[in-house]
Amino acid sequence: MEFISRHLGPDAKEQATMLAQVGYDSVEALVDAALPAAIRAAGGPQLPEPLSEDEAQAKLREYASHNTVLKSFYGQGFSDTLTPAVIRRGLLEDAGWYTAYTPYQPEISQGRLEALLNFQTLIEEITGLSIANASLLDEATAVAEAVGLMSRAVKKGRRVVLDARMHPQVLAVAAERARAIELEVEIVDLREGLVGEDIVGVVLAYTGTEGDILDPRAIIEEAHTRGALATVDADPLSLLLLEGPGSFGADIAVGSTQRFGVPMFFGGPHAAYMAVTDKLKRQLPGRLVGVSVDADGQPAYRLALQTREQHIRRERATSNICTAQALLANVASMYAVYHGPVGLRAIATRIHDLADSFATSLVKAGKEIVSAQFFDTVTVTGVDAAAIKSALQEQGYLVRAIGADKVSVSFGESATAADVETLAAAFGVDEVAPAQGSRLPEALKRVTPALTHPIFSSIHSETQMLRYLRELADKDLALDRTMIPLGSCTMKLNPTAAMEPISWPEFAGIHPYAPAETTKGWHQLIHELEDWLAEITGYAKVSLQPNAGSQGELAGLLAIRRYHVANGDHGRDVILIPSSAHGTNAASATLANLRVVVVKTADDGAIDLADLDAKIEQHGEHIAGIMITYPSTHGVFDPEVRDVCDKVHAAGGQVYIDGANLNALAGWAKPGEFGGDVSHLNLHKTFTIPHGGGGPGVGPVAVAEHLVPFLPTNANDPAIDPTVPTEVGHGVPLISTEFGSAGVLPISWSYLAMIGAKGLEQASAHAILGANYLASRLHDAFPILYTGNAGLVAHECILDLRDLTSASGVTAADVAKRLVDFGFHAPTLAFPVAGTLMVEPTESENQGELDRFIEAMLTIRAEIQEIIDGTIAYEDSVIHNAPFTAATVAADEWEFKFSRAQAAYPVSSLRRTKYFPPVRRIDEAYGDRNLVCACPPPEAFDVSAGADTNTDEK
């Protein structure tokens, strides 16, 4: 059976039934009616004929065979690690983990929230800082985010000092991101001290890129005396042996957790981390998991301090990050849980001893190393770097050549004593000496206990880990259990055949800076995917570097800004953004140093053309461009989109088309042909990379020919001098590696290889069919807020509950919580219009699942009617008190004015398969008033002892 027939939910009979409901005899006729003719592509994308699942995997095997898996001793922020098989199969490759959405509905996300809280607790304990977030994107952007945080927190000063000892790619990204927000960047070797005033902050390497270890205390003290903040960029594994940055006064710690069991993946995805002092917690970017209480007073997890985030604060947000690398943070957290403090320290000690043995052997043989103190990386100087690197590559080893006369050797988890012998021999050393004891500075050796929370000492066996992973997954609702009808988030099938190859060693075990001759298969796959995406979107070229949609937005906006500056239009710094746009749009514009001007929405949900004209008239030659989402965030195909593009182009601006909703267009229309100059795509939406409970995401940026020079550059390019601003006629590096989260690109490659051009058309058409089927079945009970051509919606629809709320008191949030009792993840709540639910069924849901959702919504509508009719008061209603746990339903006492059956089994089908949430409705405000963002003690969950209400902050 061809892949497309497996990918689409409705079979032929169901398709006919759904079409009859919406009044069309074919999906083509439906698309013809819904999609404005003005934007239709002249022809579909030119893609190869679709492959079967087996054929696609065979092709990937061929690509994989063109990669050479070298034993990696390269370092530079990427280390060899061993992913425990139980974590690889039970988490990374398990659909219960990778198909989950971001935990904005916390009652059905307690498992992944607990895993992320473990991650935060891990980071807090090893860094010695009071609060950590639930992961960022990569090490380089984590440093950039720290620079932004310091500039927000320190109002005086416009200069940031970066330690020249950081990895080159980190320096390149952080420097350009800082310059984009008009900070002066100084890059110095901080071993020579800190000089100057007017400083907002300093970032120190701990350890340096060549392996040396600087005692940071003096630099931190100097920064503080100048009124500046201090960030430490630290390898978390080294912090099992070295004191945490918090112990010597650092304000912020950042780094990558890649070596905590996450494969190198040719550069990503990897979870970065950030920890801060208590006083900086409300400036902290990214997701923050906190502990609150539910309606029964029991501890419950949620995302805390959401008012910092882009979806609420827009251009005033602390960051533009929307999804982070949650799935990989969970892998890292479970790696720490599985090994525990004793195991992690043993791994770190073993790595350090091997590096020590290697260094001791070389020194005894008369070789010179750049530093006698190191953790895992030894850099040898005064050698023929190219010859040694080449000789070792012939033997299957990868080391780093620095200039002509230095070779850096960085030890990872899989390294052995035999590897030390081979490596030493390449430097002409015949005899390997034992480790001398310790190469760590005495004053920095760790004495503070790490990972003291019981969770890190309670999982000793594979059986326990297997059951812990299952216990957490069972608490959650992911795509393997139910439709996730989130508008604008496109939670569709993640094909298993596409997921399998990501953990093949020939893809997962490749260092991102391996020589090109050893990564030919990766480059073949990547360039083919780039070409396919360019063909689908109608643009000239695509960069896969951005590792999230937010980063794709930033890349596109920086391209627009630098294009104008290169043409001498320095004053074009205004970006027009419709009021309905995603919150990341405005936050990304701010990071690109553009001023946001909001354009109103018309009554029909389209852009208000009169207001657009007024804004163009008002800002004239200052307009850099406009950001629009198409189809619109209101779930309709705006027929005026070409008019909008023409008006902005006439004013000298560029058109940015947000590709979040491309699942309604792919195969039928190309943004690059109907007016777009640049778009970002979400491979984790339209192109089936899973959301992973909040990442990984991939957000490629696609541009027209005139913007090609401004695409992101490779941060590891030796030609880049981070001390000098990148010329305005070029792009800037966005993250650590050239191809971003390359490790998950085989998923999208597989999807496109298997679906082909006609399949892509069918997928988009069925997404439109599913949305219109739902809208048609539900509009009498819940009015559809916006419709387009022929009264149709695009791939999503907005259910308007505002009149029902006025009549009954039942809010959209109440409906979201009640849907949990039916075993559904709620639609998108209160976006883009407060008091509404935005529903996107996707093409991968069959009619039976859509009907199950419809039945749930109509049942809830009847429950609302009972309140309107006065049969029951809102406060006493089943909706107001939802959701219900198994413990609540089975309790001896039942205090409610409705039956247990109505609470737990409102429709008969639930008696066959029933999901019970682990907690009742969570008190969101309580969690922010009483902020706890580390794992609570086990006794907090002892129901027999009563709820633990201790709100002391940790």
UniProtKB/TrEMBL annotation:
Pfam families: GcvP2_C (PF21478), GDC-P (PF02347)
GO cellular component: a single term: glycine cleavage complex
Top class in the EC scheme: oxidoreductase
EC number: 1.4.4.2
Cofactor requirements of the protein: pyridoxal 5'-phosphate
GO terms of molecular function: glycine binding; glycine dehydrogenase (decarboxylating) activity; pyridoxal phosphate binding
Glycine cleavage system P-protein N-terminal domain residues: 6-426, 427-712
Subunit text: The glycine cleavage system is composed of four proteins: P, T, L and H.
Protein family membership: Belongs to the GcvP family.
Protein name from the UniProt record: glycine dehydrogenase (aminomethyl-transferring)
